[in-house]
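lol so apparently i was supposed to do this last week
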Amino acid sequence: MTEHVERDSMEVDVVIVGAGPSGLAAACRLMQQANEAEQELTVCVVEKGSEVGAHILSGAVFEPRALDELFPDWAERGAPLTTPAVRDELYLLRDAEKAQKLPNALVPKSMHNTGGQ
Ligand SMILES: Cc1cc2nc3c(=O)[nH]c(=O)nc-3n(C[C@H](O)[C@H](O)[C@H](O)COP(=O)(O)OP(=O)(O)OC[C@H]3O[C@@H](n4cnc5c(N)ncnc54)[C@H](O)[C@@H]3O)c2cc1C
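anyway here it is w/ flavin-adenine dinucleotide bound
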């Protein structure tokens, strides 16, 4: 016998699956555009984690270009980005933990370090 299950339902215009950076940016941008056009829009973001960010392991090194475009005033709004990254270095671990800095020739140009080699 099939059991009848009552399910909640909700009508929305857009459903976005996943509240990672992509999903959240898409939701924010859609709402910004709807506000600019003075149009009503309902966007629902569905996240399987217990809360937004629950699947994030730790802090991150953050390239803020997309955030600049989405929220040019993010700093004034108090976004918790407080330590600028001024240098990037890549190390190759070999012979049990001796670390050797990778020369720029082996590193993609966008990740070139500025220190000595
Ligand atoms: C260990 C590690 C370290 C990283 N460090 C950095 C860093 O320092 N700097 C940096 O810029 N990038 C870093 N990245 C990369 C960065 O995390 C990803 O580029 C970014 O998270 C991708 O965003 P996204 O929204 O596409 O996907 P995700 O962040 O993966 O978001 C997808 C979301 O969808 C949810 N989801 C999936 N399936 C479903 C479903 N069926 N129903 C509901 N919800 C669902 C997930 O729970 C998740 O929250 C790192 C990645 C890893 C793994």
